[in-house]
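Narrative of activities, Objective 1.

The group set out to show that a structural description can be obtained from nothing but a protein's sequence at a throughput compatible with the screening campaign. Below is one input-output pair from the validation batch, recorded exactly as produced.
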Amino acid sequence: MKPYFERGWCFCESSWAAMVKHFALVLDLGKIAGEGRFYAYQCVQGHKAPVLPGEFVAQLVCKGFTNGNTDTPLVARLYREGFEARFGVATKLSYARLGWGDEEARAVARVLLRAPALKELNLGNNSIGDEGARALAEALPHAPAMQVLGLDGNSIGAEGARALAEALPHAPTLKELSLQFNSIGDEGARALAEALPHALALKMLDLYGNSIGAEGARALAEALPHAQVLKMLDLCVNSTGDEGARALAETLPHALALEALRLDGNSIGAEGARALAEALPRAPALKTLWLQDNSIGDEAKAALRTAWGTRGGGLYI
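Output recorded for this entry:
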């Protein structure tokens, strides 16, 4: 007897089940290791990337049927109908923690062209690199409803960031781009900074934990006055230091849209903190500032509190 995934009907049914369901709701119980305890994380690893109907048919010819002459075209038709029905109305897809790489990212990118209602795509905590990011970037302009793209915890570097940056001006509905815990560095930050003035819908850019130093922070700072709608910039756990903090301080009074800035864990000292404190009275749009896990000292903290005054929002130092 053929294994489960080599049987035509079983292959089709499992493909249907995995199309648009949240990653945690598609489990392969055969992957449970050990006895007694149920390890859901192990079981989600069998989740396959969705494929277009034509690609499904190409895979289907290798599967076994009791009556292939009649079953194969029937299954192909049913898959196509199911694909069009599900992806035609899907508004959110979550494919996180599945061990997916560039090949799966390319498959998802192809599917985006057939998902006109999709607003949110989460591909966090996979192994997607620059090639996968490039494929997704090329698909973004053809995803007319896309508002949120989550690529946290992947292996995206400067090249992938540059590809995404090039797509931003052509993604008129994208409001949030999250790249936490990748490795875009200063070069990737510069590329995104160059795109910010032309990203007319982007309200949140999350670059937490991306090895960004003073150079990348300076590029982003210079772009902020020209970023017409960007409300939130997250630079936590990078290496901007005092130099990067000074660059951001210089531009804050001119960043009229920016409401929240996160600089936790950036090796910022008293000098950078004082520069930010001096800028705060001239930056009325800023409502929330995070500076925790730095080394700014009590004197600079007092200066920040005084400069913050009674404005709403929060100062976290």
